[in-house]
């Protein structure tokens, strides 16, 4: 078994290798002058089961192509099996056509990963579980929830918790979280989007008055969704608001929104490298290694 890291999140790859009591495999990854990706394995993988750790986080296209080239290098070096470990799967939100003449980039991405030569994929908190079906190879789908739940339970924040989904699409995820959090009650924010990365909060279904609200989502990108939801929860009388999201994409102006005083704490994981996140006092990063 060999584990190699791409350049997207070497610290997570190192932690995973360390957990397994192994060293990371040696690999040379660089860019040519024109930006093309070059990969050379620095050790034999002939007959090995190879795991490539590479979240396709921002810069998404760069990291994605790097993953393709890494897979191709392993295939051409006669690896027995190649597992693409993709803790954050870029393009996951492009999982269906919402208007005519759009692409389904999540499916295209799945095709390209398979075509490059991966035999198996490991992903964490896919935006929609159904996207596993885009792959004709085995997909292991793991979750950040257990580490977040363990952390929250350790904090013993309150008995009066309500778990909140910041949009209707995330209800199943939030319901599962609530169930594991001592069967906490559930509330739902009815969000209507006006455009890409522009979120508008409309209504709250459920009661948060005087309670500690725990918002649960798969990702924070620009933080529009979570910040609008938090503002609504505060308006509706929530005592404190926590945000629990696996993927901290944090595109601008996420940091400003998250550190504006709406949140008691913003709890994320390291599927995307912490280096990308400008730290702020309310931020906690947990490891999924
Ligand atoms: C949407 O369906 C997702 O689950 C997230 O809520 C959304 O993509 C987060 O994006 P942003 O932080 O830009 O609102």
Automatic annotation (TrEMBL):
One GO term of the biological process aspect: 5-phosphoribose 1-diphosphate biosynthetic process
Key words of the record: ATP-binding, Cytoplasm, Kinase, Magnesium, Metal-binding, Nucleotide biosynthesis, Nucleotide-binding, Transferase
The Ribose-phosphate pyrophosphokinase N-terminal domain, residue ranges: 2-117
Catalytic activity: D-ribose 5-phosphate + ATP = 5-phospho-alpha-D-ribose 1-diphosphate + AMP + H(+)
EC code: 2.7.6.1
Gene Ontology MF terms: ATP binding; kinase activity; magnesium ion binding; ribose phosphate diphosphokinase activity
Class of the enzyme per the UniProt entry, highest EC level: transferase
GO cellular component: cytoplasm; ribose phosphate diphosphokinase complex
Family indicated by similarity: Belongs to the ribose-phosphate pyrophosphokinase family.
Name by which UniProt lists this protein: ribose-phosphate diphosphokinase
Residues of the full protein shown: 87 to 375 of 396
């Amino acid at each position: 078994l060999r584990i190699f890291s791409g350049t997207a999140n070497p610290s997570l790859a190192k932690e995973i290798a360390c957990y397994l009591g192994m060293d990371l495999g040696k690999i040379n990854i660089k860019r040519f002058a024109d930006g093309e990706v070059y990969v050379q394995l620095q050790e034999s993988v002939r007959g090995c089961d190879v795991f490539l750790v590479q979240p396709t986080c921002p810069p998404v296209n760069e990291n994605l192509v790097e993953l393709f080239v890494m897979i191709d290098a392993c295939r051409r070096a006669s690896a027995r099996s190649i597992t693409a470990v993709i803790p954050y799967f870029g393009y996951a939100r492009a999982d269906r056509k919402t208007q005519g003449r759009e692409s389904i980039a999540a499916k295209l991405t799945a095709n390209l990963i398979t075509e490059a030569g991966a035999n198996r994929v490991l992903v964490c908190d896919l935006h929609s579980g159904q996207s596993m079906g885009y792959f004709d190879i085995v997909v292991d789908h793991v979750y950040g929830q257990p580490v977040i739940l363990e952390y929250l339970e350790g904090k013993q924040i309150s008995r009066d918790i309500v778990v909140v989904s910041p949009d209707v699409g995330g209800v199943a995820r939030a319901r599962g979280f609530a169930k594991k959090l001592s069967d906490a009650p559930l509330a739902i924010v009815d969000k209507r989007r006006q455009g890409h990365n522009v979120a508008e909060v409309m209504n709250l279904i459920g009661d948060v008055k005087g309670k500690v609200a725990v918002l649960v989502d798969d990702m924070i990108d620009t933080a529009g969704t979570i910040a609008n939801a938090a503002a609504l929860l505060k308006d509706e009388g929530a005592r404190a608001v926590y945000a629990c999201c696996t993927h901290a994409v944090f595109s601008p102006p996420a940091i400003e929104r998250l550190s504006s005083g709406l949140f008691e704490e913003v709890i994320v994981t390291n599927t995307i490298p912490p280096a990308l996140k400008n730290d702020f006092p309310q931020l906690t990063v947990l490891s999924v290694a």
